[in-house]
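Subject: VOC family protein

B.,
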Amino acid sequence: MNHLTPENLYHTGFVVQDLDEAARTMSKALGYRWTKPATGNERPVVYADGTRTTVRLNYCYSIDSPHLELIEAVPGTPWALKGGSIHHLGYWVDDLVAASAELALAGFPLVVCAADDEGNYPARFAHHEGPDGAYIELVERSVFGKPFDEWLSTSPRFESD
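Prediction pasted inline below.
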């Protein structure tokens, strides 16, 4: 059963040094509008070797499609700067555990994923590394609590200069 299909690709992610500057630059150059930068909750994550820690990500999404996600770099994590290339392709999945296992069997090893409040994982999202170093991010469709486009349309906007 193939959990990853083109119609479930919903964004392309970039890790950037400065979130506000990257959003301003992409607005000027490419005409994108952005959600207001947000700081996520400190989230427990589990690395492939079993190491557990927490991470807090600063991010924003483009309101315009095709959707882009900007994530402020977090040194020493999979969200560190890797030379300015595309960081990940984000896919919606309905069954994160099954999709993650399937992707690992296809040669894309699990690198890091979120854990739920009881410590079970993967939960909410999982990052798998492709042969070229870019990640595939699997995200449970229910993460935003409403359809993504509706979430974007009600999110505070980033005002560029």
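Residues 19-30 form the longest helix (12 residues).

T.
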